Amino acid sequence: MTHKRKSAAAKRRQDNLAQPDQSLSSSSSSTQQQQQEQQPVLLAADKTGKKWRNMAIRTFTTLLMIGAFFFVLASGYVWSIVAVMGITIVVYREVIQIAQVPAKEKSVRWFKTMSWYFLITTEYFLYGESIIYYFTEIVMVDRFLLPFATHHRFISFMLYVLGFVFFVANLKKGQYSFQMAQFCYTHMALLLIVVQSHFIVENILEGLIWFVMPAALVICNDIFAYVCGFFWGRTPLIQLSPKKTVEGFVGGFLCTLVLGFIITTILMQFNYLICPVQDLGASAWSHVTCEPKNPVFTAVPWELPSNVAWLLKLIFQRDITQVPIAPVQLHAIVMACFASLIAPFGGFFASAVKRAFKIKDFGHSIPGHGGMTDRMDCQFLMGLFAHMYHQSFIKTYNVSVGSILALTINNLTPREQVELLERLQTYLSNQEILDSAMIAASNIGDIISKAQRNLTL
């Protein structure tokens, strides 16, 4: 009897020792199964019809967006600016919406209101700066706008300070860490979305080509990276975007280089695109001219290497030793490199945000693409680069009526301003630009003399 009890106890101990191994084995197999299920299937390896349906939807919506893009461009400068501002607001709303959900769960007061208040304050500061800089001759002579232009930065600062004080006053015990995280998230959205999009607007004011070309390069890279990855992608590129492949990345880069040169060659033919904005109401059907034209758009002969010239002679049966190339075409190659190699990391950053908040897309406003943020994540970074590159290597600085007018208003006393008017009138009369007889008949000289006597008293 005792022997049987010992045998039964020994058997139970063996079963107990075996059970952890079995549970560990089952746990390991289930973990492997989950990893296999979670592992993304690359587009090129996906044999289902789903990828073709997605491609058809993406192609259709892409063509619609490109058509809308050209329509807005042709409508005029002001509509291009309005479109950028509208896209900025939509993207900001999508990004803030992500953080608003946990804010509601924790009953954080005024988060949404303060987010929009800081957006309005930031837009007021940035666009006010642009208006004052590019349209000084209009702002500085307007009696209503002049005080706002003169004290613009101080007004903007005080508006921001009011929002900051309101935020601090609404800090709630037990939620300090969460509220600080929300505050930082809002400012991250302002910096990466609103500030960067403002530079895109400045690109428009410098000439539509500096808005169209960078945007077109990103679009080309996005399309051909998707197409190359769709058909040939086999090697995953980065964990943040599991369906991005090395083949798509390289294919998009090569195609963007070629198309960037071609697109720029076409765009530089139109004054509407290359001239800085002088009239916000102008459109593609307006007669737009700019003199002097930026020399970057003027083609100059480039001497070909001897081996290239020999090859061209062999193909075309005539001597070709020089080719006309405008500097902007070479600048386009540099921008194409950035659009293909660096700008995609803006998309990877957006993917990291989505992974952090456990969402697939920022929204569902664009079928096949997700939200507006999912399509604009690379454009903001590209627009900022285009602005910095243009300011550093391309922009020419000329004295304008607006800059002289601002200098006169801000640095001369009223008496000196009247004296400047008198001297300018005398000069124009001596050069026979103004009719001396008409000036004498208008009594403008008496008016200026009276103003000088009043200012002297």
From TrEMBL:
Reaction it catalyzes: a 1,2-diacyl-sn-glycero-3-phosphate + CTP + H(+) = a CDP-1,2-diacyl-sn-glycerol + diphosphate
Enzyme class (EC, first level): transferase
Listed GO CC annotations: endoplasmic reticulum membrane
Locations listed in the record: Membrane
Listed EC numbers: 2.7.7.41
Gene Ontology process terms (BP): CDP-diacylglycerol biosynthetic process
Record's compositionally biased regions (Low complexity): 22-37
GO terms, molecular function: phosphatidate cytidylyltransferase activity
Entry keywords, A to Z: Lipid biosynthesis, Lipid metabolism, Membrane, Nucleotidyltransferase, Phospholipid biosynthesis, Phospholipid metabolism, Transferase, Transmembrane, Transmembrane helix
Highest taxon of source: Eukaryota
Signal peptide: none
Transmembrane regions listed in the UniProt entry: 55-71, 77-95, 116-134, 154-171, 183-201, 207-233, 245-270, 328-350
Record-given protein name: Phosphatidate cytidylyltransferase
Protein species of origin: Lichtheimia ornata
